[in-house]
Amino acid sequence: MADVRVRFAPSPTGALHIGGLRTALYNYLFARKSGGTFVLRIEDTDQKRFVPGAEDYILESLEWSGIRPDEGPGLGGDFGPYRQSERREIYARYTQHLLDGGHAYYAFDTEEELDARREEEKAAGNHSFRYDAATRTGMRNSLVLTREETDALLDAGTPYVVRLRVEPGQMVHVQDLVRGDVAFRSEEVDDKVLMKADGLPTYHLANVVDDHLMEITHVIRGEEWLPSTALHVLLYRAFGWEKSMPAFAHLPLLLKPNGKGKLSKRDGQQLGFPVFPLDWTSGDETLSGFREAGFLPAATVNFLAFLGWNPGTEQEMFTLRELVEAFDLERINKSGAQYDFEKARWYNQQYLIAADDERLGDRVGQVFADHHHPISTEQATTIAGLLKERVHTLPEFYEQGLYFVTRVGITDEKMARKKWKPDQRPRFEALRKELAGVDPWTAPRIKETTVAFMKANDLGFGQVLPILRLAVSGTVNGPDAFAILEAVGQEETLARLSEGYNLMDRLQS
Ligand code: GLU
Questions:
Q1: Which of 265, 414, 419, 455 is catalytic?
Q2: CA nearest 180: which of 230, 245, 249, 234?
Q3: Atom 6 in ligand 1: which residue has the minimum CA distance?
Q4: What's phi and psi for 285, nearest 5 deg?
Q5: DSSP 8-state assignment for residue 176
Q6: Contact of 45 with 90, CB cutoff 8 Å
Q7: pLDDT digit string (tens) for 467-483?
Q8: Residue 163 parent element (H or E)
Q9: Active-site residue flag, 122
Protein backbone atom coordinates (compact mmCIF):
# COMPACT_ATOMS: atom_id res chain seq x y z
CA MET A 1 0.00 0.00 0.00
CA ALA A 2 1.17 3.54 -0.73
CA ASP A 3 2.25 5.47 2.33
CA VAL A 4 -0.80 6.24 4.37
CA ARG A 5 -1.91 9.86 4.22
CA VAL A 6 -5.06 10.95 6.00
CA ARG A 7 -6.56 14.34 6.58
CA PHE A 8 -8.79 16.14 8.99
CA ALA A 9 -10.68 18.73 6.96
CA PRO A 10 -12.82 20.93 9.19
CA SER A 11 -14.69 23.99 7.97
CA PRO A 12 -14.14 27.04 10.16
CA THR A 13 -17.84 27.72 10.59
CA GLY A 14 -17.93 27.97 14.38
CA ALA A 15 -16.76 25.97 17.35
CA LEU A 16 -15.46 22.53 16.48
CA HIS A 17 -17.96 20.02 17.81
CA ILE A 18 -16.59 17.25 20.00
CA GLY A 19 -17.55 14.81 17.21
CA GLY A 20 -15.16 16.72 14.97
CA LEU A 21 -12.40 16.22 17.49
CA ARG A 22 -13.17 12.52 17.49
CA THR A 23 -12.80 12.50 13.69
CA ALA A 24 -9.43 14.21 14.07
CA LEU A 25 -8.42 11.68 16.73
CA TYR A 26 -9.29 8.64 14.62
CA ASN A 27 -7.39 10.08 11.67
CA TYR A 28 -4.42 10.77 13.90
CA LEU A 29 -4.48 7.30 15.44
CA PHE A 30 -4.72 5.63 12.07
CA ALA A 31 -1.86 7.72 10.67
CA ARG A 32 0.39 7.00 13.63
CA LYS A 33 -0.46 3.33 13.68
CA SER A 34 0.42 2.92 10.01
CA GLY A 35 3.48 5.15 10.10
CA GLY A 36 1.66 7.58 7.83
CA THR A 37 1.02 11.29 7.68
CA PHE A 38 -1.78 13.26 9.29
CA VAL A 39 -2.76 16.36 7.36
CA LEU A 40 -4.85 19.26 8.58
CA ARG A 41 -6.73 21.02 5.81
CA ILE A 42 -8.95 24.02 6.45
CA GLU A 43 -12.01 23.97 4.20
CA ASP A 44 -12.93 27.62 4.14
CA THR A 45 -14.45 28.16 0.72
CA ASP A 46 -17.96 28.84 1.96
CA GLN A 47 -17.74 32.55 2.61
CA LYS A 48 -21.28 32.76 3.91
CA ARG A 49 -20.52 30.36 6.72
CA PHE A 50 -17.01 31.55 7.50
CA VAL A 51 -16.59 32.57 11.13
CA PRO A 52 -13.54 34.56 12.25
CA GLY A 53 -11.66 32.85 15.03
CA ALA A 54 -12.94 29.40 14.15
CA GLU A 55 -9.66 28.29 12.58
CA ASP A 56 -7.71 29.32 15.67
CA TYR A 57 -10.24 27.45 17.76
CA ILE A 58 -9.63 24.30 15.71
CA LEU A 59 -5.85 24.64 16.07
CA GLU A 60 -6.09 25.27 19.78
CA SER A 61 -8.41 22.30 20.28
CA LEU A 62 -5.97 20.00 18.50
CA GLU A 63 -3.06 21.44 20.45
CA TRP A 64 -4.86 21.03 23.77
CA SER A 65 -5.78 17.44 23.09
CA GLY A 66 -2.33 16.49 21.80
CA ILE A 67 -3.60 15.50 18.35
CA ARG A 68 -0.80 17.09 16.34
CA PRO A 69 -0.99 17.25 12.55
CA ASP A 70 2.18 16.65 10.51
CA GLU A 71 1.19 19.01 7.72
CA GLY A 72 -1.20 21.92 7.71
CA PRO A 73 -1.55 25.69 7.80
CA GLY A 74 1.45 27.08 9.62
CA LEU A 75 3.07 23.66 9.81
CA GLY A 76 4.39 23.33 6.30
CA GLY A 77 4.43 20.26 4.11
CA ASP A 78 4.88 19.47 0.44
CA PHE A 79 1.23 19.61 -0.50
CA GLY A 80 0.23 23.13 0.53
CA PRO A 81 -1.31 25.54 0.71
CA TYR A 82 -3.50 23.78 3.27
CA ARG A 83 -6.16 26.45 3.44
CA GLN A 84 -8.61 26.06 0.57
CA SER A 85 -9.17 29.79 0.20
CA GLU A 86 -5.54 29.95 -0.93
CA ARG A 87 -6.05 27.34 -3.65
CA ARG A 88 -8.53 29.12 -5.92
CA GLU A 89 -6.45 28.86 -9.08
CA ILE A 90 -6.11 25.13 -8.59
CA TYR A 91 -9.89 24.66 -8.45
CA ALA A 92 -10.40 26.94 -11.45
CA ARG A 93 -7.92 24.85 -13.43
CA TYR A 94 -9.57 21.57 -12.52
CA THR A 95 -13.02 22.92 -13.23
CA GLN A 96 -11.85 23.91 -16.69
CA HIS A 97 -10.58 20.40 -17.12
CA LEU A 98 -14.04 19.00 -16.41
CA LEU A 99 -15.68 21.54 -18.72
CA ASP A 100 -13.27 20.67 -21.51
CA GLY A 101 -13.95 16.98 -21.08
CA GLY A 102 -17.73 17.48 -21.19
CA HIS A 103 -18.16 16.37 -17.57
CA ALA A 104 -19.36 19.74 -16.37
CA TYR A 105 -21.30 22.63 -17.82
CA TYR A 106 -22.10 26.27 -17.25
CA ALA A 107 -25.49 27.09 -15.81
CA PHE A 108 -26.79 30.64 -16.01
CA ASP A 109 -30.09 30.19 -14.19
CA THR A 110 -30.67 33.01 -11.75
CA GLU A 111 -31.88 32.43 -8.19
CA GLU A 112 -35.27 33.81 -9.25
CA GLU A 113 -35.52 31.39 -12.15
CA LEU A 114 -34.61 28.48 -9.92
CA ASP A 115 -37.14 29.56 -7.31
CA ALA A 116 -39.84 29.90 -9.97
CA ARG A 117 -39.01 26.42 -11.20
CA ARG A 118 -39.26 25.02 -7.67
CA GLU A 119 -42.64 26.70 -7.21
CA GLU A 120 -43.87 25.20 -10.46
CA GLU A 121 -42.96 21.71 -9.35
CA LYS A 122 -44.60 22.28 -6.01
CA ALA A 123 -47.80 23.55 -7.62
CA ALA A 124 -47.88 20.50 -9.85
CA GLY A 125 -47.67 18.38 -6.72
CA ASN A 126 -44.28 16.93 -7.65
CA HIS A 127 -41.42 16.19 -5.34
CA SER A 128 -39.02 19.04 -4.97
CA PHE A 129 -37.18 20.24 -8.03
CA ARG A 130 -33.80 18.71 -8.79
CA TYR A 131 -31.35 19.94 -11.34
CA ASP A 132 -30.43 16.73 -13.12
CA ALA A 133 -30.49 14.82 -16.40
CA ALA A 134 -34.27 14.84 -16.42
CA THR A 135 -34.69 18.59 -15.90
CA ARG A 136 -31.57 20.29 -17.19
CA THR A 137 -32.82 20.41 -20.76
CA GLY A 138 -35.48 22.87 -19.62
CA MET A 139 -32.94 25.19 -17.97
CA ARG A 140 -30.50 27.85 -19.10
CA ASN A 141 -27.15 26.11 -19.39
CA SER A 142 -24.41 25.34 -21.85
CA LEU A 143 -25.86 21.94 -22.65
CA VAL A 144 -28.97 23.63 -24.02
CA LEU A 145 -27.57 26.85 -25.43
CA THR A 146 -25.42 26.93 -28.53
CA ARG A 147 -21.73 27.41 -28.18
CA GLU A 148 -22.08 30.99 -29.45
CA GLU A 149 -24.85 31.80 -27.00
CA THR A 150 -22.80 30.45 -24.12
CA ASP A 151 -19.70 32.36 -25.15
CA ALA A 152 -21.71 35.55 -25.53
CA LEU A 153 -23.11 35.18 -22.01
CA LEU A 154 -19.67 34.47 -20.60
CA ASP A 155 -18.14 37.41 -22.46
CA ALA A 156 -20.86 39.68 -21.14
CA GLY A 157 -19.91 38.69 -17.61
CA THR A 158 -23.23 36.97 -16.88
CA PRO A 159 -23.07 35.26 -13.50
CA TYR A 160 -22.89 31.48 -13.75
CA VAL A 161 -22.18 28.35 -11.80
CA VAL A 162 -20.51 25.20 -13.06
CA ARG A 163 -22.41 21.97 -12.52
CA LEU A 164 -21.33 18.35 -12.72
CA ARG A 165 -22.97 16.51 -15.57
CA VAL A 166 -24.27 13.37 -13.93
CA GLU A 167 -25.43 10.78 -16.42
CA PRO A 168 -28.11 8.35 -15.27
CA GLY A 169 -27.70 4.62 -15.34
CA GLN A 170 -24.36 4.39 -13.54
CA MET A 171 -23.75 2.35 -10.43
CA VAL A 172 -21.51 3.70 -7.73
CA HIS A 173 -20.02 1.32 -5.21
CA VAL A 174 -18.17 2.52 -2.17
CA GLN A 175 -16.21 -0.07 -0.24
CA ASP A 176 -16.56 1.63 3.09
CA LEU A 177 -14.11 0.30 5.66
CA VAL A 178 -16.74 0.61 8.38
CA ARG A 179 -19.94 -0.13 6.50
CA GLY A 180 -18.83 -2.50 3.79
CA ASP A 181 -20.22 -2.17 0.30
CA VAL A 182 -22.48 0.86 -0.06
CA ALA A 183 -24.14 1.16 -3.45
CA PHE A 184 -25.74 4.21 -5.06
CA ARG A 185 -27.36 4.75 -8.44
CA SER A 186 -26.29 7.87 -10.27
CA GLU A 187 -29.96 8.88 -10.58
CA GLU A 188 -29.85 9.59 -6.85
CA VAL A 189 -27.27 12.31 -7.45
CA ASP A 190 -28.23 15.65 -8.92
CA ASP A 191 -26.07 17.89 -11.06
CA LYS A 192 -24.34 19.47 -8.10
CA VAL A 193 -22.80 22.88 -8.31
CA LEU A 194 -19.00 22.56 -8.36
CA MET A 195 -18.06 26.19 -8.86
CA LYS A 196 -20.19 28.94 -7.39
CA ALA A 197 -21.01 32.31 -8.89
CA ASP A 198 -18.43 33.92 -6.59
CA GLY A 199 -15.69 31.93 -8.32
CA LEU A 200 -15.12 29.72 -5.31
CA PRO A 201 -15.56 25.96 -5.41
CA THR A 202 -18.16 24.12 -3.41
CA TYR A 203 -17.09 21.73 -0.69
CA HIS A 204 -17.48 18.75 -3.03
CA LEU A 205 -15.14 19.93 -5.76
CA ALA A 206 -12.49 21.34 -3.47
CA ASN A 207 -12.59 18.26 -1.25
CA VAL A 208 -12.11 15.80 -4.09
CA VAL A 209 -9.46 17.83 -5.89
CA ASP A 210 -7.51 18.29 -2.69
CA ASP A 211 -7.78 14.70 -1.57
CA HIS A 212 -6.37 13.74 -4.94
CA LEU A 213 -3.60 16.34 -5.07
CA MET A 214 -2.65 15.78 -1.44
CA GLU A 215 -2.44 12.06 -2.18
CA ILE A 216 -4.87 11.15 0.57
CA THR A 217 -5.16 7.38 0.87
CA HIS A 218 -7.98 7.14 3.43
CA VAL A 219 -10.89 9.47 4.01
CA ILE A 220 -12.04 9.02 7.59
CA ARG A 221 -14.97 11.28 8.36
CA GLY A 222 -18.41 11.50 9.92
CA GLU A 223 -21.33 9.45 8.69
CA GLU A 224 -23.18 12.59 7.63
CA TRP A 225 -20.87 12.67 4.59
CA LEU A 226 -21.76 9.18 3.40
CA PRO A 227 -24.49 10.33 0.96
CA SER A 228 -22.05 12.84 -0.57
CA THR A 229 -19.62 10.04 -1.27
CA ALA A 230 -21.64 8.94 -4.31
CA LEU A 231 -21.10 12.35 -5.84
CA HIS A 232 -17.44 12.26 -4.89
CA VAL A 233 -16.95 8.93 -6.62
CA LEU A 234 -18.63 10.34 -9.73
CA LEU A 235 -16.25 13.26 -9.57
CA TYR A 236 -13.23 10.95 -9.31
CA ARG A 237 -14.65 9.13 -12.30
CA ALA A 238 -15.08 12.35 -14.28
CA PHE A 239 -11.50 13.33 -13.55
CA GLY A 240 -10.25 9.87 -14.49
CA TRP A 241 -8.91 9.33 -10.97
CA GLU A 242 -11.17 6.52 -9.85
CA LYS A 243 -8.36 3.98 -9.70
CA SER A 244 -6.35 6.02 -7.24
CA MET A 245 -9.40 7.12 -5.24
CA PRO A 246 -8.93 7.02 -1.45
CA ALA A 247 -10.57 4.36 0.68
CA PHE A 248 -13.48 5.62 2.78
CA ALA A 249 -14.37 5.05 6.42
CA HIS A 250 -17.48 6.75 7.73
CA LEU A 251 -17.63 7.11 11.49
CA PRO A 252 -20.83 6.52 13.44
CA LEU A 253 -22.88 9.48 14.60
CA LEU A 254 -22.69 10.73 18.16
CA LEU A 255 -26.11 10.31 19.71
CA LYS A 256 -27.85 12.11 22.55
CA PRO A 257 -27.37 10.52 25.99
CA ASN A 258 -30.77 8.81 25.67
CA GLY A 259 -29.75 7.41 22.28
CA LYS A 260 -32.53 9.25 20.49
CA GLY A 261 -31.20 11.41 17.70
CA LYS A 262 -27.99 13.21 16.92
CA LEU A 263 -26.12 14.99 19.67
CA SER A 264 -26.50 18.72 19.10
CA LYS A 265 -24.92 21.79 20.59
CA ARG A 266 -28.27 22.54 22.21
CA ASP A 267 -28.11 19.25 24.11
CA GLY A 268 -24.98 20.45 25.80
CA GLN A 269 -26.66 23.64 26.92
CA GLN A 270 -29.88 21.97 27.96
CA LEU A 271 -28.36 19.05 29.80
CA GLY A 272 -25.52 21.06 31.28
CA PHE A 273 -22.43 19.35 29.92
CA PRO A 274 -19.88 20.29 27.30
CA VAL A 275 -20.09 19.08 23.70
CA PHE A 276 -17.11 21.15 22.59
CA PRO A 277 -13.42 20.78 23.40
CA LEU A 278 -12.98 24.40 24.54
CA ASP A 279 -15.27 27.23 25.54
CA TRP A 280 -16.54 29.21 22.57
CA THR A 281 -18.08 32.63 22.92
CA SER A 282 -19.98 34.38 20.21
CA GLY A 283 -22.17 37.34 20.97
CA ASP A 284 -23.60 36.85 24.42
CA GLU A 285 -23.63 33.08 24.13
CA THR A 286 -20.88 30.87 25.52
CA LEU A 287 -20.80 27.19 24.67
CA SER A 288 -18.95 25.25 27.28
CA GLY A 289 -15.86 23.19 26.59
CA PHE A 290 -14.20 20.21 28.20
CA ARG A 291 -11.07 22.20 29.00
CA GLU A 292 -12.89 24.89 30.95
CA ALA A 293 -15.17 22.32 32.59
CA GLY A 294 -12.03 20.91 34.20
CA PHE A 295 -11.25 17.87 32.09
CA LEU A 296 -7.73 16.70 31.46
CA PRO A 297 -6.85 16.36 27.78
CA ALA A 298 -5.73 12.76 28.20
CA ALA A 299 -9.04 11.81 29.82
CA THR A 300 -11.03 13.60 27.14
CA VAL A 301 -9.11 11.81 24.41
CA ASN A 302 -9.55 8.44 26.10
CA PHE A 303 -13.28 9.08 26.41
CA LEU A 304 -13.58 10.18 22.78
CA ALA A 305 -11.67 7.17 21.50
CA PHE A 306 -14.37 4.93 22.92
CA LEU A 307 -17.21 6.84 21.27
CA GLY A 308 -17.51 4.57 18.27
CA TRP A 309 -14.55 2.27 18.73
CA ASN A 310 -13.48 -0.37 21.23
CA PRO A 311 -10.34 -2.45 21.55
CA GLY A 312 -12.22 -5.74 21.87
CA THR A 313 -10.82 -6.28 25.37
CA GLU A 314 -11.84 -5.18 28.84
CA GLN A 315 -9.20 -2.49 28.98
CA GLU A 316 -10.66 1.00 29.25
CA MET A 317 -7.70 3.17 30.16
CA PHE A 318 -5.49 4.10 27.23
CA THR A 319 -2.87 6.76 26.84
CA LEU A 320 -2.66 8.34 23.42
CA ARG A 321 0.32 6.14 22.68
CA GLU A 322 -1.54 3.02 23.74
CA LEU A 323 -4.49 4.07 21.60
CA VAL A 324 -2.17 4.26 18.60
CA GLU A 325 -1.09 0.68 19.30
CA ALA A 326 -4.60 -0.66 19.78
CA PHE A 327 -6.47 1.35 17.16
CA ASP A 328 -7.92 -0.45 14.20
CA LEU A 329 -10.45 0.84 11.67
CA GLU A 330 -12.07 -2.57 11.65
CA ARG A 331 -13.15 -2.17 15.24
CA ILE A 332 -15.16 0.98 14.57
CA ASN A 333 -18.85 0.42 15.21
CA LYS A 334 -21.49 0.94 12.58
CA SER A 335 -24.17 2.03 14.98
CA GLY A 336 -24.32 5.46 16.58
CA ALA A 337 -22.36 6.10 19.76
CA GLN A 338 -24.36 7.26 22.74
CA TYR A 339 -22.81 10.27 24.41
CA ASP A 340 -22.50 9.28 28.05
CA PHE A 341 -21.29 12.26 29.99
CA GLU A 342 -21.03 10.29 33.23
CA LYS A 343 -18.47 8.14 31.45
CA ALA A 344 -16.48 11.25 30.59
CA ARG A 345 -16.49 12.20 34.27
CA TRP A 346 -15.44 8.71 35.23
CA TYR A 347 -12.51 8.86 32.84
CA ASN A 348 -11.46 12.19 34.18
CA GLN A 349 -11.53 10.90 37.73
CA GLN A 350 -9.36 7.94 36.80
CA TYR A 351 -6.79 10.30 35.30
CA LEU A 352 -6.91 12.59 38.32
CA ILE A 353 -6.33 9.67 40.66
CA ALA A 354 -3.44 8.41 38.57
CA ALA A 355 -1.85 11.86 38.32
CA ASP A 356 1.24 12.78 40.26
CA ASP A 357 0.23 15.09 43.16
CA GLU A 358 2.77 17.73 42.36
CA ARG A 359 1.87 17.98 38.69
CA LEU A 360 -1.81 17.87 39.45
CA GLY A 361 -1.08 20.52 42.06
CA ASP A 362 -0.09 22.91 39.29
CA ARG A 363 -3.53 22.61 37.82
CA VAL A 364 -5.21 22.82 41.22
CA GLY A 365 -3.21 25.98 41.95
CA GLN A 366 -4.44 27.38 38.65
CA VAL A 367 -8.07 26.67 39.53
CA PHE A 368 -7.69 28.50 42.85
CA ALA A 369 -5.93 31.38 41.10
CA ASP A 370 -8.77 31.55 38.58
CA HIS A 371 -11.10 32.00 41.53
CA HIS A 372 -8.88 34.79 42.88
CA HIS A 373 -7.58 32.61 45.67
CA PRO A 374 -3.89 32.20 45.01
CA ILE A 375 -2.39 29.34 47.04
CA SER A 376 1.15 28.09 47.54
CA THR A 377 2.60 25.21 45.56
CA GLU A 378 2.73 23.19 48.76
CA GLN A 379 -0.92 23.82 49.53
CA ALA A 380 -1.86 22.97 45.95
CA THR A 381 0.03 19.69 46.08
CA THR A 382 -1.57 18.77 49.41
CA ILE A 383 -5.08 19.58 48.19
CA ALA A 384 -4.46 17.65 44.97
CA GLY A 385 -3.38 14.57 46.91
CA LEU A 386 -6.15 14.70 49.50
CA LEU A 387 -9.06 15.41 47.18
CA LYS A 388 -8.26 13.68 43.93
CA GLU A 389 -10.18 10.52 44.80
CA ARG A 390 -13.23 12.57 45.70
CA VAL A 391 -13.65 14.79 42.64
CA HIS A 392 -14.30 14.29 38.96
CA THR A 393 -13.22 17.60 37.48
CA LEU A 394 -10.69 20.32 38.30
CA PRO A 395 -13.12 23.02 39.50
CA GLU A 396 -14.32 20.60 42.17
CA PHE A 397 -10.93 20.90 43.88
CA TYR A 398 -11.86 24.48 44.58
CA GLU A 399 -15.51 23.79 45.36
CA GLN A 400 -14.66 21.01 47.79
CA GLY A 401 -11.33 22.30 49.02
CA LEU A 402 -11.77 25.98 49.70
CA TYR A 403 -11.72 25.34 53.45
CA PHE A 404 -8.10 24.26 53.20
CA VAL A 405 -7.08 27.82 52.59
CA THR A 406 -9.78 29.99 54.07
CA ARG A 407 -12.48 29.90 56.73
CA VAL A 408 -15.83 28.95 55.30
CA GLY A 409 -17.91 28.84 58.50
CA ILE A 410 -20.34 25.98 59.04
CA THR A 411 -21.69 24.92 55.67
CA ASP A 412 -23.56 21.84 56.86
CA GLU A 413 -25.69 23.48 59.53
CA LYS A 414 -28.08 20.59 59.78
CA MET A 415 -25.30 18.25 60.75
CA ALA A 416 -23.88 20.80 63.17
CA ARG A 417 -27.22 21.03 64.98
CA LYS A 418 -27.39 17.29 65.19
CA LYS A 419 -23.85 16.64 66.37
CA TRP A 420 -23.05 19.54 68.67
CA LYS A 421 -24.06 19.21 72.30
CA PRO A 422 -23.50 22.56 74.05
CA ASP A 423 -23.00 20.83 77.39
CA GLN A 424 -20.01 19.06 75.89
CA ARG A 425 -18.25 22.30 75.18
CA PRO A 426 -15.86 22.11 78.14
CA ARG A 427 -14.67 18.76 76.88
CA PHE A 428 -14.01 20.11 73.40
CA GLU A 429 -12.21 23.08 74.91
CA ALA A 430 -10.03 20.55 76.68
CA LEU A 431 -9.42 18.72 73.41
CA ARG A 432 -8.40 22.01 71.83
CA LYS A 433 -5.92 22.51 74.60
CA GLU A 434 -4.48 19.05 74.04
CA LEU A 435 -4.13 19.80 70.34
CA ALA A 436 -2.29 23.00 71.15
CA GLY A 437 0.45 20.83 72.58
CA VAL A 438 0.89 18.57 69.58
CA ASP A 439 4.39 18.83 68.21
CA PRO A 440 5.22 18.24 65.42
CA TRP A 441 1.86 18.99 63.82
CA THR A 442 1.44 15.88 61.70
CA ALA A 443 -1.63 13.79 61.01
CA PRO A 444 -0.35 10.74 62.99
CA ARG A 445 0.50 12.88 66.04
CA ILE A 446 -2.82 14.72 65.86
CA LYS A 447 -4.56 11.38 65.68
CA GLU A 448 -2.60 9.96 68.61
CA THR A 449 -3.52 12.90 70.83
CA THR A 450 -7.16 12.85 69.77
CA VAL A 451 -7.53 9.12 70.34
CA ALA A 452 -5.93 9.37 73.78
CA PHE A 453 -8.35 12.15 74.62
CA MET A 454 -11.31 10.10 73.44
CA LYS A 455 -10.29 7.15 75.57
CA ALA A 456 -9.78 9.28 78.65
CA ASN A 457 -13.23 10.82 78.19
CA ASP A 458 -14.98 7.69 77.09
CA LEU A 459 -15.94 9.19 73.72
CA GLY A 460 -16.20 7.48 70.34
CA PHE A 461 -14.96 8.61 66.93
CA GLY A 462 -18.55 9.38 65.95
CA GLN A 463 -18.84 11.92 68.74
CA VAL A 464 -15.55 13.68 68.23
CA LEU A 465 -14.51 13.62 64.58
CA PRO A 466 -17.65 15.26 63.17
CA ILE A 467 -17.14 18.16 65.58
CA LEU A 468 -13.52 18.62 64.53
CA ARG A 469 -14.50 18.41 60.89
CA LEU A 470 -17.43 20.82 61.19
CA ALA A 471 -15.36 23.40 63.06
CA VAL A 472 -12.41 23.21 60.71
CA SER A 473 -13.98 22.47 57.31
CA GLY A 474 -17.66 23.32 57.77
CA THR A 475 -18.83 19.85 56.77
CA VAL A 476 -18.58 16.25 57.93
CA ASN A 477 -17.49 15.05 54.51
CA GLY A 478 -14.02 15.10 53.12
CA PRO A 479 -10.76 13.22 53.26
CA ASP A 480 -9.13 11.95 56.45
CA ALA A 481 -9.92 14.42 59.27
CA PHE A 482 -6.40 14.38 60.70
CA ALA A 483 -4.92 15.01 57.27
CA ILE A 484 -7.22 18.02 56.94
CA LEU A 485 -6.07 19.38 60.29
CA GLU A 486 -2.45 18.92 59.36
CA ALA A 487 -2.98 20.69 56.06
CA VAL A 488 -4.86 23.58 57.66
CA GLY A 489 -2.03 24.08 60.16
CA GLN A 490 -1.91 24.12 63.95
CA GLU A 491 -2.51 27.77 64.66
CA GLU A 492 -5.33 28.01 62.16
CA THR A 493 -6.92 24.78 63.42
CA LEU A 494 -6.96 26.07 66.98
CA ALA A 495 -8.51 29.35 65.86
CA ARG A 496 -11.13 27.55 63.81
CA LEU A 497 -12.00 25.27 66.71
CA SER A 498 -12.78 28.23 68.97
CA GLU A 499 -14.71 29.95 66.25
CA GLY A 500 -16.48 26.75 65.25
CA TYR A 501 -17.60 25.95 68.82
CA ASN A 502 -19.11 29.43 69.02
CA LEU A 503 -20.86 29.08 65.68
CA MET A 504 -22.29 25.71 66.67
CA ASP A 505 -23.44 27.03 70.02
CA ARG A 506 -25.27 29.77 68.20
CA LEU A 507 -26.91 27.33 65.82
CA GLN A 508 -28.54 25.57 68.76
CA SER A 509 -30.44 28.61 69.90
N1 GLU B 1 -15.25 20.26 5.52
C2 GLU B 1 -15.98 19.09 5.85
C3 GLU B 1 -16.45 19.22 7.29
O4 GLU B 1 -16.44 20.30 7.78
C5 GLU B 1 -15.10 17.89 5.65
C6 GLU B 1 -15.79 16.62 5.38
C7 GLU B 1 -14.79 15.59 4.91
O8 GLU B 1 -13.97 15.17 5.75
O9 GLU B 1 -14.78 15.26 3.76
O10 GLU B 1 -16.81 18.33 7.96
A1: 265
A2: 249
A3: 9
A4: -110, 130
A5: E
A6: no
A7: 999 999 999 999 999 99
A8: strand 161-164
A9: no
